[in-house]
Design a protein that fits this description.
This protein is an all-alpha fold. The protein has helices at residues 9-24, 28-46, 51-66, 70-88, 93-118, 128-138. It comes from Amphimedon queenslandica.
Length: 139
């Protein structure tokens, strides 16, 4: 930072990697700040439709989901998906995977909120398909 200054294109990479490391360590709020900075700098120097921007939106959505900012997370997921669709096409693996993850995350949070509102216990499992199937059978 001292060598280039805060608004240098290389700082977007530094912020991106710090945000990624913080997210992987479970420090989602701190990660959000670095990823938003990386996003701002990438937009400034490389435009809003690069694959790097899509990746940052994806990681930012992950951090936002973990801190409970679901509306913002959904917007970032949508932006990532739209960039992948524009750059790679609708049938590319990145586009399809981005869409599926967006839908699964949204559905899993709807299931959780439904469980809370109705007073059902929320099953603790890493397999979201089991959660969705379990709640579908209860209904």
């Amino acid at each position: 930072m001292l060598r280039h200054g805060e608004d240098h294109p290389e700082m977007s990479n530094v912020d991106f990697y710090i945000g990624l490391l913080l997210s992987n360590a479970g420090h989602y709020e701190e990660s959000q700040a670095y990823l938003e900075s990386a996003l701002r700098l990438q937009n400034k120097f490389h435009g809003s439709q690069s694959i790097t921007i899509a990746t940052i939106h994806h990681l930012l959505a992950n951090s936002l989901t973990h801190i409970g900012a679901f509306a913002e997370a959904k917007q970032n997921k949508r932006k990532a998906y739209n960039i992948y669709r524009t750059e790679f096409g609708p049938d590319h693996a990145c586009t399809v995977q981005s869409y599926k993850k967006r839908e699964l995350k949204l559905n899993s949070h709807l299931v959780l909120f439904d469980a809370i509102l109705v007073g059902r216990p929320y099953p603790r499992t890493d397999n979201i398909f089991l959660v969705l199937v379990g709640f579908a059978q209860i209904r």
